[in-house]
Amino acid sequence: MRPDTKKERRNGWLVLAGAVVVAGAATWWLMDDGSGEARLTSAIAALPHQDQGILFSQRLEDQRAATRKLAETIEELKKRVGFTAEAQFQVPKDTHEPSYLFRQVFTSVRGILGDRAIARSCENPDEFLGFGSDQKVPDDAEAAYLLTMLQLTKKAVELVLDKETQISSFKITHAKAELTGAKTRPPLLREYPLELTVTGSQRDILWLLHRFAKTDDDRAVDYPLIIRGLTITSKNLKPRDDVQQLQATFKIAGMQFLSPEERAAQGGVPLAVAAPGNAAPGSSANTNRVSAARP
Fold this sequence. Notes:
Blueprint: H1 6-30, H2 35-45, H3 54-81, H4 98-119, H5 143-160, E1 169-174, E2 178-180, E3 189-200, H6 202-213, E4 226-234, E5 246-257, H7 260-265, E6 289-291
Antiparallel strand pairs: 1-3, 2-3, 2-6, 3-5, 4-5
Helix pairs in contact: 1-2, 1-3, 4-5
């Protein structure tokens, strides 16, 4: 009497089909041009007709639904940690002289932050906020980059001058924007690095460290500043009677996620290694990043 192997063969086909669905869905998700989904459909069509019942089609639809849900979740996370240029710091399309627009906005922001620093008795040795004392109007091509840096500078300095802190001094500088992402994939985002050095108490330093990463629920649009590095130096080298002071240097950055069109424009070429000599003053070379021209 021969054993009945039909059931075993059928179970084997089910296991194989399930593996094809999972592997095909993963390939479809990772590829940008849609060829992953085409391959998955072809693989399902190649299976025996009697095993293509509702089980496979339902699994495929469930996988697609899960993929869509994952994409929505990723977009939501990007909105929470990334930033977009506020209206005040954007260059309107009909602007003929973007560089003069930057100068006007910079003068306004500089005056507001300067007045707040004086009111808080906070010393700022660089009244130009890292943008240089040269009154020459910058090139129009740099206006968008400079306005973005001004927006991030304003946010960082406002936290320094918050009523919760007693920072005695601060200084801020900027570096070139950098495209970042996996080395074998198009860049995912653009980082705008800043370096902020403050002098204050341990409580002030910890408060800033926390606030950089926190968003304000009272603001309609808010975003964190990511911490790329932190150095703390004690200024209490000798016994003193006054309040102990620490000097902290925060390397922070704003993250701006690239649009699908911007990622496609990169052509999928692996990221180049940034040459140390191309790093801007005050910035550190990172082999996983590539310095971008001022957009």
